[in-house]
Write a structure and sequence with these properties.
Shape: globular
Oligomer: single chain
Distance between the termini: 28 Å
Mean pLDDT: 86
Low-confidence stretches: none
CATH architecture: Roll
CATH class: Alpha Beta
């Protein structure tokens, strides 16, 4: 099982959560093809939320669908997702810097994620993330 960090805009997160789908554009297909059923997707909502809000399980193989749920036929390569017990409101996200052992938000990572569709995180980072979800912040 792989764990994938998925930076998304707030509107796209809400669409993914409502439709239980995650998708990427054609340019992101090369890495997206590595995603398999039962992998985990860690959703990092970009500003204004600016943090991790959910961990979801992939429940399907990748498929192509042009149903216009994101607008203008965006993100046609998709997987179905299932929300897990790890979910937060957008107004109380886990800062991404916490995955790197920084708890005072002293490092800025978000600008580097703006054009990243999906990237792996380590098992160690995932373990840390699960602990952070269990904490009441």
């Amino acid at each position: 099982m792989n764990i994938w960090l998925c930076p998304v805009k707030p509107k796209n997160w809400r669409t993914a959560k409502t439709n239980k789908l995650f998708g990427v554009p054609k340019r992101g297909l090369k890495i997206f093809r590595q995603v398999q059923t039962d992998d985990l997707l860690v959703f990092h909502v970009l500003k204004p939320a600016g943090g991790i809000v959910s961990i979801c399980r992939v429940t399907s193989e990748i498929f192509e669908d042009h149903q216009d749920i994101w607008g203008k036929d965006r993100y046609p390569f998709r997987v179905r997702i299932e929300l897990q017990e790890f979910i937060r409101d957008e107004d109380k996200p886990i800062p991404l810097s916490h995955l790197f052992g920084k708890t005072d938000n002293e490092i800025t990572i978000e600008p580097y994620l703006r054009h990243v569709g999906i990237t792996k995180i380590s098992q160690e980072q995932f373990k840390k993330l699960k602990e952070l979800f269990k904490q009441d912040t």
